[in-house]
Amino acid sequence: MNTFAANAAHIFLIGIGATAVMDTWLLLLQRLGVPTLNFAMIGRWAGHWGGGTWKHEAIAKAPPVRGELALGWVVHYASGIAFAGLLAGITGLDWVHKPTLVPALCVGIATVAVPWLVMQPAMGAGIASSRTPAPARNRLRSLANHTVFGLGLYLAAAFIAWILR
């Protein structure tokens, strides 16, 4: 396998692993009775892009789209892979092979900007959940989830680097 393909595969696996760590965290929260994100709503949002609709007053009230749950999961994992690529782009490929915690946490925490500034406003929740009944709690949850994702970036990269040694 050439170097480009090997690095791309490495980044792909880091993104998948980090997203799986975040999903494990979300599953734990669900088991503890904490409401978590409904990935069908992400799929519904993405499913309306083809028709030119990017913003909704309330995504839950938008017409459902076929396969929205599966589409939501695909968007979720594709985002994780893209964020892993962003981390590699910022730190350089050396980080991919010799990961350290701080850059991964910083990028993970920074990725909270996407839901706060893009997804939540586009789905009708306002900037950083400002139109929800409990904005501060929702902001804190998003920040915690993306911090766990950052930890997942490090853990996935460290695990893959360990396997490849």
What does this structure look like?
- With 165 residues, the protein is mostly helical.
- It has one domain.
- Helices cover 71% and strands 0% of the residues.
- Helix 2 (39-47) crosses helix 3 and helix 5 (101-110) runs antiparallel to helix 7.
- This is Membrane protein.
- The chain crosses the membrane at residues 6-29, 69-90, 102-122, 143-164.
Helices and strands in order:
Layout lengths: L2 H29 L7 H9 L20 H24 L1 H5 L3 H10 L2 H10 L12 H30 L1
Helix pairs in contact: 1-3, 1-7, 2-3, 3-5, 5-7
Please describe the structure with a list of short key phrases separated by commas or semicolons.
165 residues, mainly alpha, globular, transmembrane, membrane, Membrane protein
Explain briefly what this protein structure is.
With 165 residues, the chain is mostly helical. Helix content is 71%, strand content 0%.
Question: What's the overall average pLDDT, rounded?
Answer: 96
Q: Span from first to last CA?
A: 17 Å
Order of SSEs: HHHHHHH
Work out the radius of gyration.
Answer: 17 Å
Number of domains: 1
Transmembrane segments: 6-29, 69-90, 102-122, 143-164
Protein name: Membrane protein
Pfam family, one: DUF2938
InterPro entries: DUF2938
